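Subject: sequence -> structure tokens, single chain

Hey, anyone have a minute? Need the predicted structure for the following. Not urgent.
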Amino acid sequence: MEYKDYYKTLDVDKNASEDDIKKAFRKLAKKYHPDLNQDDNEAQEKFKEINEAYEVLGDPEKKKKYDTFGSGYNFSGGQNFDPSQYGYSYNSTGNAGDFSDFFETIFGGMGNNSRTSRSFSFEDFFGGGNSRPRSAAQRQSYESELNISLEEGFNGATKKVSLNYGGEIKRLSVKIPKGMLPGKKLKVKGKKWGLNGDIIFKINLIEDGKNKLDGLNIITKVDVLPWEAALGTKVVVNTMIGKIKVSIPKGITGGKKIRLANKGYVDTKGNTGDLYIEINIINPPNLSDEEEELYQQLSEISTYNPRG
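Reply:
Had a minute. Here:
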């Protein structure tokens, strides 16, 4: 069986205080939380290891037993040992939940159900570690983050969110009002979802590569062909308020912007920005013989030198 170095897992010294251990756990738990790493199996395994380590080091009784066992036999992390030689026995039933065989062997008989351990405390993940004590009459509040797209912020949306509360997964439906901006906070009453307090979500806005938010202005990239830029044209642009026909002036250059007043983002107070159409000139990926010949003729008769 492999010996687990819980101090190394939480990146704390063996003489670390209870408060230091808790701070280290909270920092790592936020970083590797499954809700923020849904497609990252490695991060989710790390999350389990962090919780197991805190289940031991965050419990004075378990920590004392762990320290006594480790120092008494001078074990190091990753070292293999036979538990039967040290008075322990373990028969794997496949029901160890999120904890290792090492944990179940050493601490399985200590009276706590490891699958509902204190290490999965919702407050440990999202609560403020240095908040002032609250009276019983004051409501708790928990903090998390919520990623939304520019379109969801512009039009409003309902997002399905999963949160780990006391070892139990809570699935919430969070209504996003129109006009939410990045960095703003959204309060959701937890009582409806069986939570003892409210959840404060910090809004993160995820851009799609074509649209960018600058204050209340929306910058939308539009691809045009070289001859369209040279001769001018009309294009249909997909915007947050629907399709708009835009006139591209003759001789426009790449990177230039066309401003459409009051067509941008609208915040929760009704303030409106502008829409900027940013020109991106692209060449056809493949040229026909005729097109290549015309380009050749143009190169021969043109007198313009962009390099001075």
